[in-house]
Amino acid sequence: MPCHGTDLQPRCKLLADANAARTLVPSADAEIEGIRQRFKDTRARIRALEQEIVTFSDAAALVAKKEEELQSVVAERRVAEKSAALATNLAEAQHRIHSLRQELAAVETGCAEKSKKIEAEMREIEAAIAELTVRAREQESDGKRTAAELQQQIDSLPPAFEAQRIEQAEAAMRAVQQRETSAEKAYVSAVTTRAEVQASIATWEKEVEKGRGLRTRIEKLEMELGWWNLLAKALSNDRVIALCIDDAGPTLSSLANDLLLSCYGPRFSVSIKTQLETARKDLKEGFDIAVFDSEARESKSVSVMSGGEKVWVDGCLTRAIALYLGRSSGRRYQTLFSDEADGALDPERKRMFM
Questions:
Q1: Residues 216 and 288 grouped into a single domain
Q2: Are residues 266 and 203 both part of a single domain?
Q3: Are residues 227 and 197 in the same domain?
């Protein structure tokens, strides 16, 4: 096939048809071989029939006779097929009639049951109507009796009041009704006010309960805030930090002086001060680095030194702090980064600095 060995091979319809045909080849060969055998048998039979035809003297008459017999057989077959069709239709019709009879019987049974049920309901309705009729007659007689009694009571009443007294009684009744209406309104208003007051009390009770919870929480927070303030005060500049500075000061000074002596000679030496003198000659916690210059024979703060001189001291102090932190933490540091610390030095001093 043209697509053999390519990516199209799995999707090739021709190859798929060829593969399907390959599986059908054996059965097709067998079928062809059977057809050939039947063809041989048919040819042999035809030859035998031809020999038989030759043996007959009057082949035409025999053929005509056989055709007549064939026509009669065909006519009988048609009659038989019609009869068979009629028999089939008759059987279906009988089956349908039987089904319809069964359905009719079921319908008649259902109708009989419904008729009995309707008759029972009719009897119940007639009994109810009779009972209602009796009750209506009784109520009618009771109504007549009650009407007669009322008429007797009306006849036995005293003479009618005077019109003025009737008007006074009606006015008094209206006043009473007005007072009753006012009292009802006042009662409704009181009930509403009571409900509002109860709702307000419930709300205030919730607020009070919430306030109690908030007060407890505030007390806890105040207590925790006190501990944090104590901790902040302990960690402030004049507490733990001052102690750390006091503890680190001599060591840092010693390391810085060793570096200055090893790299630049005995000119500069530093000392770290953690107690500063105020204007009143008092001491307070602070931090300052005093540098002693042996050539100038003077001591001054590192913050007022010139740029070139300050480079020496800053470099040694920075490395002294790094060495101190490395020893205190137990870690080893191999690299220290700085940003153009030798910018204020001339070439000779830069080489000494490096």
A1: no
A2: no
A3: yes
> How many alpha carbons lie under 13 Å from residue 64 in its C-beta half-sphere?
4
- Indicate whether 256 and 327 sit together in one domain: yes
308-332 per-position pLDDT tens digit: 788 888 888 989 988 988 888 888 8
Domain count, the chain: 3
Q: Give the model confidence (pLDDT) of 271-314 as tens digits.
A: 888 777 777 877 777 778 889 988 888 888 888 888 778 888 88
* Residues 278, 219 share a domain: no
pLDDT number for residue 257: 93
- Let me know whether 215 and 181 are in one domain: yes
> pLDDT class for 14, splitting at 50, 70, 90?
low
